[in-house]
From TrEMBL, chain A:
Protein name according to UniProt: Cytochrome c554 and c-prime
Segments traversing the membrane: 315-338
Keyword terms, alphabetized: Membrane, Signal, Transmembrane, Transmembrane helix
Keyword Transmembrane helix found: yes
Classification via PANTHER family: C-TYPE POLYHEME CYTOCHROME OMCC, DISSIMILATORY SULFITE REDUCTASE SIRA
TrEMBL record, chain B:
Region named Disordered: 207-226
Entry keywords, A to Z: Cell membrane, Electron transport, Heme, Iron, Membrane, Metal-binding, Transmembrane, Transmembrane helix, Transport
Any one annotated GO CC term: plasma membrane
Record-annotated Cytochrome b561 bacterial/Ni-hydrogenase domain positions: 12-206
Protein name: Thiosulfate reductase cytochrome b subunit
InterPro entries: Cyt_b561_bac/Ni-Hgenase, Di-haem_cyt_TM, Hydrogenase_cytochrome, Ni-dep_Hydgase_cyt-B
UniProt-listed Pfam families: Ni_hydr_CYTB
Organism the protein comes from: Desulfuromusa kysingii
Protein's UniProt keywords contain Heme: yes
Localization of this protein: Cell membrane
Family per record: Belongs to the HupC/HyaC/HydC family.
Keyword Heme: yes
Lineage, highest ranks first: Bacteria, Pseudomonadati, Thermodesulfobacteriota, Desulfuromonadia, Desulfuromonadales
Length: 348, 226
């Protein structure tokens, strides 16, 4: 019996070592690399990796050697230059789509996406997405060129990520971000996106998601949205909505249907069904939580500040409006009929 | 000229007539373009969505400016705004009931309109009340909400404070529906002069038949002026 237990313990110990071995090697490799590359004084600006920004990326989960496979244990003493993977090795479809555009002649993948900081579309905000574009496209030029033809150009530019119009993505969804009034110390007027720490001050010991997702079921109902929007404690917060493509496309040409506004504004209330609230995370990313279907169409309190002429019209409001307009015909029809029937009384 | 108008009174001066027709044309334009802006997948009367937006904004601007000129004219030039538009105590006590009784009962029996329009008293008590609501509440509010909706970005803080963009857009839409509903009522009442086109002609020429020269006048000054 005793021998049996010893054998068992040995097997279990061996199993744990086998399972933990690859993890520890991978962790060590990453640690080894970052040991030097996260210190700007040691490697210089060009080779510096911001650990805080790199570790939350999906690339970090793959480990350094997946992309830099030629690195040896003797690096950097071996004097060999380290290889870097081609983005298209993994992102073949998006990459070839991009390579066919005029953009590819002017910017490589890494000019827009720092591979040590990049996140998926779900984890970044609209302004974050636009930062890539504004590296080459000056804000003033963007405003000038859009003002020449786009109604409410500044509103469109401030509210939307560029890729909503400047990609060939055919479907989009609504993403709501929590924004808050700027303090005087932050330059006064307007609103800015709330950070995790900002929202923690409101949620105290609870998760920040519970500011809206009160029942904690990882889904936001219309009732929860209304409660958040009507809560007097949150008067400085408001949900700012934007439209982002449902699927990422790297065909950056502008399609004709974006020019005549029909893509968004004539898409009808059916296009407003899918929406999310993007909560900031501690590491500077965003995490989406789904919102009840059609919440964007609620008349007043679902999303009081997300209104797009056309698709967000409220059905209840339409019915009230129709009744009012029909009321305008009561006098001509009702009075007119009686007037016609009693016309002989007025023949003097 | 004097002979031509010897049995007529000059009821609608030129500035009022110009304002009226600019306003009428502007409101119809706003209604059609507004309908396309709200229901773009069903209404495409004005071509592209962008043209509807530009036309709506321009017509809104024209109507708001002409409203301001109308206000300026009656308040500072003729100084008759209060007299014409604000119901007097007597209007509220007895005038409203008397006028309603005429429209909904005695008119059908062939009785005369109790109100006889003059340049100083163009409107009957019901008109005064209706125009007070339209010109002093609805028109300013629909214009103001329109100005807010075309300047969302710079006025964001104020819009959030008053309850949000949807409340503002909803208010703009419902007020617009009220003003649209007024159009058929207004046109219908304008046909209740001595002849169906009498009041409409007055709003074009400015002159209205004097009622004392008319042996049995039917109605008078129902909706012919503002």
């Amino acid at each position: 019996m005793k021998r049996y237990n010893v054998l068992n313990s040995l097997w279990l110990g061996l199993l744990l070592v086998i399972l933990a071995l690859p993890l520890s090697v991978a962790a060590m490799e990453m640690e080894d690399c970052l040991g030097c590359h996260s210190d700007v004084d040691e490697v210089g600006d060009d080779l510096f990796i911001d650990e805080d920004k790199f570790l939350p990326t999906e690339h970090a989960e793959m480990g350094c050697v997946t992309c830099h496979e030629s690195v040896t244990d003797e690096h950097p003493d071996d004097g060999e230059s380290v290889s870097s993977a081609d983005c298209l090795d993994c992102h073949e479809e998006l990459g070839s789509e991009y390579m066919a555009t005029a953009h590819a002649e002017n910017a490589s993948c890494s000019d827009c996406h720092n591979p040590h900081q990049v996140h998926g579309i779900e984890a970044v905000s609209g302004p974050d997405m636009n930062q890539q574009c504004s590296q080459c496209h000056e804000d003033v030029d963007v405003m000038d060129s859009h003002s020449q033809w786009l109604p409410q150009a500044s509103l469109h530019i401030s509210k939307l990520p560029c890729i909503t119009c400047h990609t060939s993505a055919e479907a989009y969804e609504i993403v709501l971000n929590i924004t808050q009034k700027k303090k005087k110390s932050e330059g006064g007027k307007g609103y800015r996106f709330s950070t995790y720490d900002d929202l923690k001050q409101y949620s105290n010991d609870k998760e920040i998601q519970q500011l809206i997702d009160i029942d904690g079921d990882n889904h936001i109902s219309l009732a929860e949205l209304r409660t958040f929007n009507k809560n007097p404690e949150y008067t400085d917060l408001h949900l700012s909505g934007t439209m982002v493509p449902s699927e990422v496309s790297h065909d950056l040409s502008t399609l004709d249907n974006r020019y005549d506004c029909t893509f968004c504004h004539a898409s009808g209330p059916g296009s407003m069904q899918t929406s999310f609230v993007a909560f900031p995370t501690e590491d500077g990313r965003y995490q989406r939580m789904s919102v009840a279907e059609g919440a964007m169409l609620d008349t007043l309190y679902g999303t009081p500040n997300f209104y797009m002429t056309g698709p967000t019209r409220s059905a209840a409001m339409n019915i009230i409006g129709l009744i009012i307009i029909c009321g305008g015909f009561v006098m001509p029809i009702g009075h007119g009929t009686l007037r016609f029937l009693t016309r002989n009384n007025r023949k003097h | 000229m004097a002979e031509e108008h010897q049995h007529q009174i000059y009821l609608q001066p030129i500035p009022v007539r110009i304002w009226h027709w600019i306003n009428a044309f502007g409101i119809v334009t706003l209604a059609v373009s507004g309908a396309q802006i709200r229901f773009p997948e069903y209404i495409t009367l004005l071509g592209s969505y962008k043209s509807a937006i530009y036309l709506h904004n321009t017509a809104g601007f024209v109507v708001a400016i002409s409203f301001s000129l109308w206000f300026f004219y009656y308040t500072f030039v003729t100084r008759t705004m209060a007299n014409l538009y604000v119901p007097k105590v007597e209007d509220l006590k007895t005038g409203l009931v008397k006028q309603a009784k005429f429209y909904f009962l005695t008119y059908f029996l062939g009785w005369d309109n109790p109100h006889h329009p003059t340049p100083d008293s163009k409107f009957n008590p019901m008109q005064k009340s209706a125009y007070l609501a339209i010109m002093f509440v609805m028109m300013p509010l629909v214009s103001l909400s329109g100005i807010f909706l075309t300047n969302v970005d710079p006025l964001r803080g104020l819009i959030v404070m008053i309850g949000g963009l949807k409340l503002l857009a909803g208010l703009h839409f419902l007020l617009a529906c009220c003003l649209i509903a007024f159009i058929p009522t207004h046109i219908y009442l304008a046909t209740m002069g001595r002849t169906p086109t009498d009041h409409i002609k007055t709003m074009w020429t400015g002159w209205e038949e004097e009622e004392e020269h008319d042996e049995k006048p039917e109605t008078g000054g129902v909706t012919s002026g503002h």
